[in-house]
């Protein structure tokens, strides 16, 4: 096989129930310019058996099993090191590619962009109901010059909490700081926005990805991620304005009760979370009491209100209610 132009890099862990469907959506789009690299963080289920069967039939699939699970940041970084392509597409292990996705990306990278962001639609866990038709509400492709990174930040950062839409030039990735972002769950965001790119970036408006919502493996960690890790990362970019950062998240979103209620509904916030993050924190007593009350409030009642809200507003209302449809996968 000649050196590919594009490496589709999947970091996976214990996804035997889904990864076969993911690979089925990608394989028909492979050609001699595209390889599919699966890096397995030492799965304990039969993920390895499933991927190896695909690899036996398709020479453009490479499977690498790591000795231990490194986590989403380390394992995707490892996939770039192992990739052979000029560009790396960080794809997820339970989502799907629509027909024409690879061709669209290949067409874009031929134009010299450093970064291509591929839009997505969101469906429920069974992929039967469309919850959001375009995660980035944009009808036409949009290009960003290297001095336009702040506008890219505003337009796309919320979506880029989902790693599966990122296609980046491999040499750019390898030349940038990565270690400081290990453990954030969003190493790709740190790599992209730590400084301006050397060439332009592109958002492909057509939703070529189908995201399987509600299937993340890190739900028990979601409160820490969205209330602390994500805001800390967003606010760490000194060259991005305060206004741009506020368009994505507050510096301390946990101080607002609406995110606490949402996290309680989604199962990320409970009395254990309260004890871990707030019980010893020096804040107003009234605020702490309300945070405790939300943590103790019966989740099933909040979920019912959430459900009724979605029913009243329509199937796409969930997109506006939950600001983070697309979750990092591991």
Tally of individual helices: 14
CATH superfamily of the largest domain: Spore Coat Polysaccharide Biosynthesis Protein SpsA, Chain A
Report the principal-axis shape: globular
- The CATH C-level name of the largest domain is Alpha Beta
Strand content: 15-25%
Distance N terminus to C terminus?
30 Å
Total discrete domains: 2
Gyration radius over CA: 20 Å
CATH topology of the largest domain: Spore Coat Polysaccharide Biosynthesis Protein SpsA, Chain A
Going by CATH, the architecture of the largest domain would be Alpha-Beta Complex
N-to-C SSE string, H for helix and E for strand: EHEHEHEEHEEEHEHHEHHHHHHH
Uncertain ranges: 319-330
* Category by helix and strand content: alpha/beta
* Oligomeric composition of the shown chains: single chain
What does the model show?
By secondary structure, the chain is an alpha/beta fold. The chain has two domains: 6-212, Spore Coat Polysaccharide Biosynthesis Protein SpsA, Chain A, CATH 3.90.550; 219-297, no CATH class. 38% of the residues lie in helices and 17% in strands. It has 14 helices and ten strands. It has helices at 19-26, 47-57, 72-82, 101-109, 149-156, 170-175, 187-193, 222-234, 242-246, 257-266, 271-277, 285-296, 299-313, 317-321; strands spanning 6-12, 34-40, 61-65, 87-91, 96-97, 115-123, 130-132, 142-144, 166-169, 201-212. Strand 6 and strand 7 form a beta hairpin. Helix 10 runs parallel beside helix 12, helix 10 (257-266) crosses helix 13 (299-313) and helix 11 runs antiparallel to helix 12 (285-296).
């Amino acid at each position: 096989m000649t050196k590919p132009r594009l490496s589709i890099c999947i970091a996976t862990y214990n996804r035997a129930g889904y990864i076969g469907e993911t690979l089925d959506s990608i394989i028909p789009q492979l050609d001699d310019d595209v390889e599919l690299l699966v890096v397995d963080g030492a799965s304990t289920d039969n993920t390895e058996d499933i991927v190896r069967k695909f690899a036996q039939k398709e020479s453009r699939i490479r499977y690498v099993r790591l000795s231990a699970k490194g986590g989403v940041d380390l394992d995707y970084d490892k996939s770039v090191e192992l990739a052979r392509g000029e560009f790396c597409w960080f794809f997820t292990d339970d989502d799907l590619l629509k027909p024409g996705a690879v061709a669209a990306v290949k067409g874009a990278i031929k134009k010299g962009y450093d970064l291509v962001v591929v839009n997505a639609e969101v469906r429920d866990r069974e992929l039967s109901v469309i919850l959001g038709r375009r995660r980035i509400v944009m009808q036409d492709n949009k290009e960003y010059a290297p001095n336009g990174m702040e506008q890219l930040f505003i337009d796309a950062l919320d979506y880029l909490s989902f790693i599966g839409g990122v296609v980046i030039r491999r040499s750019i990735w390898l030349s940038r700081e990565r270690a400081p972002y290990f453990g954030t769950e969003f190493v790709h965001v740190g790599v992209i926005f730590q400084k301006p790119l050397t060439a332009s970036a592109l958002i492909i408006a057509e939703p070529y990805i189908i995201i399987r919502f509600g299937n993340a493996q890190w739900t028990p960690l979601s409160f820490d991620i969205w209330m602390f890790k994500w805001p800390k990362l967003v606010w760490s970019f000194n060259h991005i304005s305060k206004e741009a950062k506020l368009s994505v998240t507050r510096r301390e979103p946990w101080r607002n009760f609406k995110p606490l209620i949402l996290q309680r509904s989604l199962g990320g916030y409970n009395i254990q979370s309260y004890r871990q993050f707030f019980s010893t924190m020096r804040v107003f007593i009234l605020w702490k009491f309300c945070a405790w009350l939300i943590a103790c409030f019966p989740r099933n009642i909040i979920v019912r209100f959430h459900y009724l809200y979605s029913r009243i507003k329509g199937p796409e209302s969930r997109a506006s209610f939950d600001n983070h449809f697309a979750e990092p996968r591991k």
